[in-house]
Amino acid sequence: MKALVAEYSESLVAFRFHAHEGKQNYLDSFSDTNVRKLWRTAGELGLIIKLHIGPDSAGQVAGLAREFPEFTVLVDHMAEAQYGSGPEFSDTIRLSELDNVYMKLSGLNHYATDELLFESVIPFSRCVVDSFGPDRMVLGSGSPEIVDTHLTHWSESDRGKSKATICSACSASRALGRRQVHQFLWRWHQ
């Protein structure tokens, strides 16, 4: 990882932990020694720590985010709510208490079928985005109209913050103060 960051220092801005695919987990625990080493190394190299996790991992993630508050953490797809229970998702909401954790408004199509704006999940998305607030939310995919549709109760200025940070990895880095051309994705397999 260090060699890649050294070679692509102007373009490599994120390290992604891909903890699961659907209900198949690739990562048993964020407390695993190797996972902790990767987290620390990525953070020390100044990379955004991107997480493709389910709600069942949020409590473990909170521990690492607290331990390393200087590292920026970005949770993808609103932590894939469809793969967890209510109590587990409450751990995801509690991640909003940590100033270094950001949430990506994306993945609505993983559980809503009313494309393009996914209006059936507005109550849920509002709960999540209101927890994190306009300064720690980024739009991950889809039309910026999703922000206008889901966040009518936010000011135009606050909605603009999320729309300005449409988050392919490129715009996430702009949102969090870094440049991006490439993204290094790490799929952790046991």
Question: Can you give a write-up of this model?
Answer:
By secondary structure, the protein is of the alpha/beta class. It has one domain (2-186): Metal-dependent hydrolases (TIM Barrel). It is 36% helix and 17% strand. The protein starts with a helix and ends with a strand.
Strand content: 15-25%
Helix content: 25-40%
| CATH level 1 class label | Alpha Beta
Helical stretch count? Answer: 8
Write down the overall geometry.
globular
* N-to-C span: 18 Å
Task: Just name the CATH architecture.
Answer: Alpha-Beta Barrel
| Relevant CATH superfamily | Metal-dependent hydrolases
Average of the residue pLDDT scores: 84
Spans of at least 5 consecutive residues with low confidence? 167-174, 177-190
Give the total of domains: 1
What is this entry, summarized?
Helices cover 36% and strands 17% of the residues.
Please give a handful of descriptors for the protein shown:
single chain; 190 residues; alpha/beta; TIM Barrel; 6-stranded parallel beta sheet; two-stranded antiparallel sheet; 8 strands
Secondary structure layout plus pairing:
Layout: H1 2-7, E1 12-18, E2 20-21, E3 24-25, H2 33-44, E4 48-52, H3 58-67, E5 73-75, H4 86-94, E6 101-105, H5 122-132, E7 137-139, H6 145-150, H7 156-163, H8 169-175, E8 182-186
Parallel strand pairs: 1-4, 1-8, 4-5, 5-6, 6-7
Antiparallel strand pairs: 2-3
